[in-house]
Automatic annotation (TrEMBL):
It comes from the Bacteria. It comes from Aquimarina spongiae. InterPro entries: Pyridox_Oxase-rel, Split_barrel_FMN-bd. This is Nitroimidazol reductase NimA, pyridoxamine 5'-phosphate oxidase superfamily.
C-alpha cells in the first residue's frame, strides 16, 4: 500500500528509530482503536478532545452536534490533527530516568470537509459505529430525520501520517545491570468481558452475533 511521504509536519523527530510511515501499519493501528484525540483552537486557546471515529481507506470520520465547538472550529480551520495511542506495557527500569512504556501511536494531518450529501453522511455514521463493533450497524435503529439533521459529520483526509512504536524491554545503563533493583515489563492490553443485556430488553431479544464475536475476539 506504500508509505506516506515525510514532511516537516509528520516527521518523527524524537526517537526517529521508532518511526514508521507505512500505510498498512498506520491503518492497522487506527483500526485497532475507537477513540482518537483531536486538537483544535477555540477562542485563541489550544484544546484537545477525545472522540469516536471511523476509518474508510484514507479518510477518517467524526461526528457531533451542530453547535459542537470542536467541530465548528475544525470547519473554520479547514484542517485537523488527530492522534491515536495504544498502551501496550509499562517498562519499569532500574533507574527512574529510563522508565518508559511500550506503545503504538499514530498522528494524522489532513483537510476537513463537512458531509452534506445524505447518503454519504449516513455511510459515514455507519462507518463510525461499525468501527466500534464490526457489522453492528445492521442491528440498531438507524437515525431518524430529527437525529440525522441534528448531527454534523466531518471527513478528515489522511494527507500526512506517521506512526511511532516502542515494543522492547528495559534500556538501562550498563553500570546499573549489577544492581539489586528489579527491572522488567508489565504487559497491558484492553479486554472485553461478556456483554450485559439491558434490563428493559424484550424477552425474545438475544445478544447479536456481532457483539458476541467482538467479545470473543477481545477477551
Amino acid at each position: 500500500m506504500g508509505t506516506y511521504s515525510v514532511s516537516s509536519l509528520n516527521k518523527v523527530v524524537r526517537g526517529p528509530k521508532r518511526a514508521n510511515y507505512d500505510v498498512q501499519t498506520i491503518n492497522t493501528i487506527l483500526d485497532d482503536a475507537f477513540l482518537c484525540n483531536v486538537g483544535y483552537i477555540w477562542d485563541s486557546k489550544a484544546i484537545v478532545i477525545p472522540t469516536a471515529y471511523g476509518r474508510k481507506e484514507n479518510k477518517l470520520y467524526i461526528h457531533g452536534s451542530l453547535k459542537n465547538r470542536m467541530m465548528l472550529s475544525l470547519l473554520e480551520a479547514g484542517e485537523a490533527s488527530v492522534s491515536v495511542t495504544h498502551l501496550d506495557g509499562l517498562v519499569l527500569a532500574r533507574s527512574a530516568f529510563h522508565h518508559s512504556a511500550n506503545y503504538r501511536s499514530v498522528n494524522v494531518f489532513g483537510k476537513v470537509r463537512k458531509l452534506e450529501d445524505p447518503d454519504e453522511k449516513m455511510a459515514a455514521l455507519a462507518c463510525i459505529l461499525n468501527h466500534m463493533v464490526d457489522g453492528h450497524w445492521d442491528h440498531v435503529r438507524q437515525p431518524n430525520e430529527k437525529e440525522f439533521n441534528a448531527t454534523l459529520v466531518l471527513e478528515i483526509s489522511m494527507d500526512h501520517a506517521s506512526a511511532k512504536v516502542r515494543a522492547e524491554g528495559v534500556n538501562d545503563e550498563p553500570e546499573d545491570h549489577n544492581s539489586s533493583i528489579w527491572a522488567g515489563v508489565v504487559p497491558i492490553r484492553q479486554v472485553a468481558f461478556d456483554a450485559i443485556s439491558d434490563e428493559l430488553l424484550q424477552p425474545d431479544v438475544n445478544i447479536p452475533d456481532t457483539v458476541n464475536r467482538f467479545v470473543e475476539q477481545n477477551k
